[in-house]
Amino acid sequence: MLIGEWSSGFNYNASVPRTCLAAALLAVFAVSAQDIREIHRLGAEAGAGGIAGAALTGSTQAVGRIVTWGRRVVSWPLDRSSPRVLVRDAGSRVFGEGGAVFDMNGDGQPDIVLTETSPAQTFPSKTLVWFEAPRGRRPNWTRHVMETGIDAHEILGATLFGRRGALLIQRRNQVRFYTADGGKRDIYSFYTPSDQGGLALHDVDGDGRPDIIAGNYWIQAPESYELPWRLFAINTWSEEKLSAMSALAVAGPGLMIAQAERTGARLAWFEKPADPRQLWRATRLEGSLDLEEPHSVAIAGDTAYVAERAGLGRLIAFRNFTPTIVAPGIFARFAWMDRSGLVLLTKDAILRVAPGAKNSP
Q1: What's the rounded Cα separation, in Å, for the pair 197 and 175?
Q2: Strand 244-251 and strand 196-197: pairing?
Q3: Dihedral of alpha carbons 55, 59, 60, 62, sign
Q4: Share of the chain above pLDDT 90, in %
Q5: Of 35, 203, 206, 244, which is most buried, counting CB atoms within 10 Å of its CB?
Q6: Nearest Cα to 178, choosing from 149, 202, 205?
């Protein structure tokens, strides 16, 4: 499920009463069919075993690329140039859903963190590994083992108190941090009826230290690495097993959260209160959409996108909290924003959605 933080922000005008939001619209967001184009056809990568996970990487100056993994790891440039295999098929080894592209050792090259399973391992137990990027006389990706017995659907590259590593939610109930040199830190364990999903870094309390957003909580960073972290609830969506399995995106004064693995899912914009340790103020957005597994959320400027993985497979754009169906039948598994617009990964293609036109009502 997609998580992310977008510096441009989702522009919520707090001066506009919620009951008058529709009337306050200055424009209607629309995307026509010709604004969606295919960048890559996944071909064999979408075959047996398929793609388990993916990540967007690339700076604002460089050409972005999508890195996918399943039976092998492949890089797909967004300028439509040819894809490149990074880590080849290793026989019976299979990479799981969780993964991240991140410079683990600080050498300036993006490395890859994944979980892998072999027939000798009992599902869902996996090995957490990172592949060190080639450099100089070392032409191949070098595999390093960090931990065994891992079940992580989400992994995030992170720097905490000057330490580079992989942040993850183990077995959907414990946040852990692993460093490239073998270090490990158990940050917090959840004790709720629901599994916890959705992971992001954001300085929630404004103290200059990155806090962690996980599921329906945020975890406050201490003053130093060795001290305990503190847990605060953003919302109370934890009634059932999948209630807090979230797709989320951070923007400005709050974040958007969707129940990523539910039918009839809730979707809301949560505005951070003056004291973020209190429950955040929610504006519910799903209305009559009857969302089915809204697995990805992405925000840029004043537009938020929500992509369904099931049901009608819709891509939905929200502007000033008002939804527009961009296209049905997309069934996006992942969605990201880059400098050129929205990028989607479906079961068999990578798509680009260009910015839509603003039309007078």
Answers
A1: 10
A2: parallel
A3: negative
A4: 74
A5: 244
A6: 149
